[in-house]
Amino acid sequence: QVQLVESGGGLVQAGGSLRLSCAASGRTFRSSGMGWFRQGPGKEREFVAGINWSGGRTYYADSVKGRFTISRDNAKKTVSLQMNSLKPEDTAVYYCGAALSDAVPDAPTDFGSWGQGTQVTVSS
């Protein structure tokens, strides 16, 4: 079981950047794929980005490809999401999740545990 705590959300103007971090605890972190998903107001949960256990493979939703970058540090048990060129439609609560396998997660249903979320608000 992996416990997750997100940080780094906030209010930013369109075109700006934010970096989200996720601190993990638990013995299985290093063998788990990790990722981020989000849920905007009145919207369904949406996959954002995923990374495999080693960090060697990543996958992004089309809506964020080229703007967001996911990375992980297994020594520090952290996962990060660098978000650039933010748009108002990126406004959502962002959740860090641990996948059910060591592969790259690419859908919300791939996650077995997640944190409490951090709010990201992008103003126009």
Describe this structure in words.
By secondary structure, the chain is mainly β. Helices cover 0% and strands 50% of the residues. The strands form 2 sheets. Strands 2, 4, 5, 6, 9, 10 and 11 form a 7-stranded mixed sheet that branches. A 4-stranded antiparallel sheet has the order 1-3-8-7, with no helix packed on it. 37% of the residues are buried.
In DSSP terms, counting alpha (H) and pi (I) runs of 4 or more, how many helices? 0
Subunit organisation of the chains: single chain
Shape: globular
- Helical content class: under 10%
Order of helices and strands: EEEEEEEEEEE
Count the beta strands: 11
Average predicted confidence as pLDDT: 95
* Largest sheet: number of strands, sense, barrel closure: 7 strands, mixed
The radius of gyration over CA amounts to: 13 Å
Structural class: mainly beta
Keywords:
four-stranded antiparallel sheet, 124 residues, seven-stranded mixed sheet
